Amino acid sequence: MRYLTAIPVHNEEKHLESVLREVVRHAEHVLVVDDGSTDRTPELLRDFREVEVIRHPRNLGYGAGLRTAFRRTVDAGYDGLVTLDCDGQHEPHMIPEVAAGLAEADIVSGSRYLKVFDPAQSPPEERRRINVEVTRWLNECLGFALTDAFCGFKAYRRSAIEKFEITDLGYAMPLQVWVQAARHGMSVVELAVPLIYLDEERAFGGALDNSDYRLKHYRRVFQDALREAGLEVAGGCR
């Protein structure tokens, strides 16, 4: 299988070089989607000539970066796509293992909660609370059996990507992916990946930094996605 490995980035000068050095060791075709970075990210990317770069002229959002990666996968004729983040929380040496899962599923989704790799690692309480709640929606309303709704370490078959109609450009974009995956009857497997949280604060931006607001926003996006997909779901899911 010929697959693309894509990393959406925005102002990642702190982690970019170390992450990319590892990624290119484990992936043959690498794309970085620079979502309008204003730090040294564009300058640092010029040193990685083996890496394809698509740059958004301004910051559009995390979902926009993944949507660009989806389009590039299809346009360039790749068989699949692996995505991971550039914040040091994913293990690039696992890229081939994540991609290999596409032999049996349309989507391979990393899960930080299937297996404990390091007992000393734990997620921020509010982020874990939101993940648990959103994962419950996906399982109860869509019939999945997931343990991690928001892990960015994933793989997709091109045939799955071609069915997606992504309109949410922000951090709620995965909810559209899950709803549309259910709508099209896509097969999903989870793969245990290490839980890694670094000693730094990661901002979502604006009102989304408030966890209660963020959860309500995710709920609105989820409900809208259900309606747009025309799914027959229980009343409590609407």
Automatic annotation (TrEMBL):
InterPro entries reported in the protein's UniProt record: Glyco_trans_2-like, Glycosyltransferase_2, Nucleotide-diphossugar_trans
Superkingdom assignment: Bacteria
Keywords recorded for this protein, A-Z: Glycosyltransferase, Transferase
Enzyme class, first EC level, given as a word: transferase
Residues annotated as domain Glycosyltransferase 2-like: 7-163
A single MF term (Gene Ontology): undecaprenyl-phosphate mannosyltransferase activity
Pfam family name, one: Glycos_transf_2
EC number, UniProt record: 2.4.1.54
The protein, known as: Undecaprenyl-phosphate mannosyltransferase
Organism: Aquisphaera giovannonii
